Amino acid sequence: MEIMKAWLKKRSVAIFLAQIGIYLMTSVTWCVVVYFTEHDPLVAAATARTNSVMFFLLLMVFMANFYVLVPYLYESKSKLRRYLFWVVEFLLIFLLNHAIFFPNDRAGIGTATHLHYYQFSIIWLVLNYVVAIAAISVRYFIRQSDLRKQLLEEKQRNAEAELAWLKNQLNPHFLFNTLNNISSLTQIDANEAQDAIGQLSDLLRYALYETQQKEVPLCGEIAFMENYIALMALRCDKNVKITTHFDAPDTVRTIPPMLFLSPIENAFKHGVSSGKPSFIDISLIEENGFLVFSCRNSNYPKDGCDRSGSGIGIENMRKRLELMYAKRYEMHQTVEQGIYKLRIKINVKK
Q1: In the CATH scheme, what architecture does the domain 156-347 have?
Q2: pLDDT higher than 80, residue 4
Q3: Are β-strands 290-298 and 278-287 bridged in parallel, bridged antiparallel, or unpaired?
């Protein structure tokens, strides 16, 4: 009973009004047809009353199935209840239409009329079962629609939860690597380390407050990346050439926060060698409704004992792209002749 109450509470008004509306529309339409085709007003009135009653009986069959028989018997997992449904269905149709199937004044009618009446009774019985099947079909489509809606809502909730988890994974990862860089810098130049701490303060302020939003302004994200790259460059020597190119003319464009941080981190982890020439080239441009991020760097992979940059950042970035831009992005990464290349193209057209 509680299940039925909950279901009725959700849909009762709209569905009930639709059923009554269909009945009234059908009855009125039939009355209009009779009015224009039947010349005798008394016959027309009697025909309209008779057909209104018959349409009402069909409505009762539909409602009885829709609200009671189908949800409690037909939709049950028990085979016994499903068999019982068809028995109760027959009894319902028989009781509601008893006066039609067995009229009191049949004794005086002829054989031909009897035959026509039996034919009508069979057609009327079939029509009642058609209405019952229609109730089953409507219930089925409503249930499928509800299930699809629930699945979409559940998928959305899971996506939001996973996205929040991924963002929480990024923040500690970012902080851990940045503190390591400043720790190394304190042994080289204390003054620069102090300035770097100020830069880190700005970066953390952005990471802690701005990233709580689902999306942030692209211009703010670019400023964050520029500051981060400048901070990371402090520990690099003259053998490392760092170039950047950021061009995003759309000032209202937004993107997920810290989306491209992982490849920038990896560029400094795996693209810089203390004794060999190294380079890092990072760009982010917007063209024709596409946001294109590119990262190229010399490749000096860490050995198995070095667990810094174990690759979780790139995997997290891929998951975030899939959650935020499913089927709207392309991501390609290769290592050719000692050069790591990553290119991400995102369709940001509204």
Answers
A1: 2-Layer Sandwich (3.30)
A2: no
A3: antiparallel
**Pair type for strands 240-247 and 278-287:** parallel
Instruction: Confirm if 226 and 284 have CB atoms less than 8 A apart.
Output: no
Q: Which residues contact 248 (CB under 8 A, 6 or more apart)?
A: 218, 219, 222, 284, 285, 286, 291
CB 300 within 8 A of CB 267: no
Cα gap 81→258, rounded to integer Å: 57
CA distances from 1 to 40, 60, 268, 314 (A): 50, 20, 64, 52
Pairing mode of beta strands 254-255, 240-247: unpaired
Say what the pLDDT of residue 291 is: 93
| Euclidean distance between CA atoms 94 and 101, whole angstroms | 8
Handedness of CA 112, 118, 122, 124 (dihedral sign): positive
Domain ranges of the chain: 2-152, 156-347
CA–CA separation, 12 and 342 (whole Å): 55
Give every CB contact of residue 299 below 8 A, 6+ residues apart in sequence: 270, 271, 335, 338, 339, 340
Q: DSSP label at 108?
A: T
Amino acid at 266: N
The pLDDT of residue 167 is above 70 = no
Beta-sheet strands, E only, within the chain: 216-217, 240-247, 254-255, 278-287, 290-298, 329-336, 339-347
Dihedral sign computed on CA atoms, order 315, 317, 319, 322: negative
User: Rg of the chain's alpha carbons, rounded to an integer?
Assistant: 37
Confidence of residue 309 (pLDDT cuts 50, 70, 90): very low
pTM: 0.53
Q: What is the mean pLDDT of the chain?
A: 78
pLDDT of 304 over the 70 cut: no
Name residues whose C-beta falls within 8 Å of residue 29's C-beta, 6 or more positions apart in sequence: none
Q: Is the pLDDT of residue 10 over 60?
A: no
Tens digits of residue pLDDT in 46-62: 777 777 777 888 888 88
Q: How confident is the model at residue 308 (pLDDT cuts 50, 70, 90)?
A: very low
Place of tokens 């982010």: 284
